Structures are given as C-alpha cells and as structure tokens.
# Entry
Amino acid sequence: MESRELPFVREMFDNIAPRYDLLNRLLSLRQDVVWRKKLVSAMVIPENGKVLDVACGTGDLSMEICRQKGPLVKVVGIDFSPGMLRLAREKIRRNQNTTISLLTGDALALPFGNASFHAVTIAFGIRNIQDKTSALRAFCDCLIPGGMVLVLELATPKKSRLRDAYLAYFQKVLPTIGRLFSRHSFAYSYLPDSVSRFPETDAFMTIMEKAGFSHVTCRRLTLGIANLFMGIKPR
# Structure
C-alpha cells in the first residue's frame, strides 16, 4: 500500500487485479471470505458509524462491513492501485451500494482530518508497507478516541506438520498456480516472501502499541494461517 517506496507493488496489483478475487478464493480455499467476516464481526461501531478501509483492493471488506453493520454505516475505501479500485467500483455499482466511497491514496498520506472515523481496517495490506509504525500512527490519528483498528494479515503457523505442509504449499504450489492464472511471474512469488518477512506476532503488537494503540490483541484464525490484530485509540 506504500506507493512512494514500493511503486512496483502498485504496478503488480494493477496487473493482477482482473484475477485477484478468483485467486484469493482459490488459493485460500475461500478462507479469505471467512476471515473478512470475522474481522467485521469483531468490529464495534455505532449504528451510524464511519469506517476507513485502507488498502481496500477490490472492495470485498468494504462491502462486508456494509452487509454486517447495516445501511447507516459509511465506508471510505482507499487504495493506491487504480486497477483494484476500478473493480471495486464495478462491484459497488452491481450491488447498488450507496454507502461506500472510494479514493486513490497512500497509507502514509491519508487525506483525512483527525478523529474522522470510528474504525480503521486493513486486510492483507499492512505487510506491503515498509514503515508500519508511521502507517499505524496515521490510522490512529484518523480515529476518534475509543475507535478501533483491525488488521487482518496472513501468517506462518507455529512449528508443526501443518507448518511444513503450509510452507510447501505457500512457497511452491501457490506461486505456480498464481502464475498460471494471473500470467504474472512475480506477484505470487512476492506474496510468500512478504509474509515471511512480516514481524512475529508479539513484535507487531509492540509496533501497534508504539503507534499509540492500547488494549492490543491478536486472534489466530484457521490454525494460525491468518491473524486478526485489534487495538483501541485511548480516550
């Protein structure tokens, strides 16, 4: 999500956008849908709350927020990939959703005032941001006191037979399938590399605390294949 430091990532997501949803479902065995639902179910906002969905991609999480939280909730989706946003706009139009607005933008230069949102979400995007502390501080600034941040990210399971099978799939099978369907030689090799470089759970929770969040927690999903991190902006 960091256009200033990783322009090749923006180009990569533009290129794979047409097949992005299909590959997400295929490669995660539809667990990505389950994980988004769990993120939204954990979100606590008022009936007429306002949510910022950073790295919104093709809009799946933004629309899930509207489905679960009701017609009065407003969602602003922001992403640095025009290709992803084009697909998100098509989905929103097909679903006749009038409560989601979309913007092209950078996670480190959010065009919003302080205390603008009741919740900030980012799903599968934080690992693409090199300066995670600055991004999380920007999220914190955007939140009202008492507001929530919810960060969904892929992870590597703890040492076990599952970990061995997961790594074999993630590092060998996934890039092959990704290249076959997306015809992009780099994208699905970049994915396992970016996940392997992501901070350990405790280390990322410390980063969240340094960025200004309190009551930081982590919920392991699907035997540790994904993590849902949550934090609160102090009142």
